[in-house]
Amino acid sequence: MTIILGIDPGSRITGYGVISQQGRHLHYLGSGCIRMSEKELPGRLKQIYAGVSEIITQFQPEVFAIEQVFMAKNPDSALKLGQARGSAIVAAVNCDLPVFEYSARSIKQAVVGTGGADKAQVQHMVQHMLKLPAKPQADAADALGVAICHANTNKTLAALAGKASGAKKGRYR
Asked: Quick one: average pLDDT of 47-66?
């Protein structure tokens, strides 16, 4: 079993989602949002770091997955998002977690089947895939989507590695 922490970074709201992966099966462990109360960016970055650190302590994940920065129309927003991501990543690295990054398009593709999906579609599919009784809040759903994307990518890579090692074994016997 692997516990995966997914993060949807934001300078005002950072979503988190925690799942476990047992073979092909995914199980919901928890999700929510870190909401910033500080007005100034340095204080918000400190809150992100502390919140992610607390989540890591609570759930003890083995893997940390986060959404990559996309180029927004507003460069200032992209810089703030990058700093929020950095705070979350430092919290993970300080706990010796391996960090994996996925584009928004890859995450939507893994969860919905199309890279152009909207937030409502991601919420619906996350609810369905994890058998949740209600739709998770949008930022939490996005974070769960990041974790699901990593689980699917990890599963595919393991399968490919198995085929590759199987082929080598068969060839050299």
From this structure: 97
- Report residue 57 as tokens: 């302590």
Say whether 122 sits in a helix, a strand or coil: helix
Q: Are strands 63-67 and 99-102 parallel, antiparallel or unpaired?
A: parallel
Specify whether the CB–CB gap between 168 and 64 falls below 8 A.
Answer: no
Q: How confident is the model at residue 169 (pLDDT cuts 50, 70, 90)?
A: very low
pLDDT of residue 44: 94
Active site residues: 8, 67, 139
**For residue 68, what are its two tokens?**
């990559």
What does the alpha-carbon distance between residue 42 and residue 59 come to, in Å, rounded to a whole number?
A: 26
Amino acid of residue 132: L
Q: Which amino acid is at 144?
A: L
Contact 2, 63 (CB under 8 A): yes
- Measuring CA to CA, how many Å separate 51 from each of 26, 39, 73, 92, 108? 24, 16, 28, 11, 25
Q: Tokens 């050299």 belong to which residue?
A: 172
What pLDDT digit, counting tens, does each position of 65-109 carry?
A: 999 877 667 788 888 889 999 999 999 999 999 999 999 899 999
